[in-house]
Amino acid sequence: MDETISVGIDIGATKTNVGLVTSSGKIIDSVRIPVQREASAEQFIETVCQAVTQLIGANQLTPADIVFYGVGVPGTADSRTGLVEYCPNLGWEDVPAGAIFKQYLGAEVMVAQDSRLAAWAECLLGAGQNYQSFICVAIGTGIGGGIIIARKIFDGALNTAGEIGHSVLQKNGRPCACGNHGCLERYSSGTGMIERALEAYPEKFVERPHQAETLFELAHAGDEDLLRLIRSMVEDLAIGIANAVSLLSPEAVIISGGLCTHEELIINPLRELVNQYGYHAWTRKRQLKIEQAQLGPAAPMIGAALLYKSR
Ligand SMILES: [Zn+2]
Fold it and tell me: How far does residue 237's CA lie from ligand 1's centre (Å)?
């Protein structure tokens, strides 16, 4: 058998996915465990490592069969040192996650930001396969980004490349969890969208779940007010993306995250609006591609398992 097996761990804000992934990106098996916010980083990592060990055993494998361990976190991590620098969703600051994982697993473990791993997975196996350079924008609870240049993950000198969600859209705007005001993700993430909809039309959400999906269901059913509101939020998103494209000049922008499946209400309008808000020197050629991601919610886990291919 030519295929090797590695472990991908995707630590999310509420759930952690652990999977056994082949070198060609096939998921052999995976488990999902809840994130314990009250636990210390060390206790939590220990729990994740127990799940990893169980998953390996349950598939009649031993640690000797695993060629690589990769971990994704919802925050800023230094892939060279394994240090999680800033991860507000988990309450982690300067946590040496790579070293703690290594202590429990007895092997080297690489750590990276989840949104960069999603971009990496799309690069290897998904919508980014045919591009040398692209930006992957994940629209979910927040807005995450991953930048691929010359088919490598771009971290940036400050290790914060891709933070499009925290680019400032509005001076003195809505407060963001990062401490700043007016960040793009406060306007156009799933959370930002439902918040704006609830403010504008509270009566439409009585006895309905306060989630972005509810907003999209009502819009799909033809609610004109909500269709206009979504259009306005997608305009904000397009401004953020157009600015990033002006700066980086990629071949494509790949939209991932829970809301990327709304082709009619998000992807198609973005195709028009990003060009509208972009700089004439690139928009006049109309060459920028805007694509829907292909790998779905497993992308960060797959990207984590295959992170060794970025070295
Ligand atoms: Zn922010």
Answer: 14
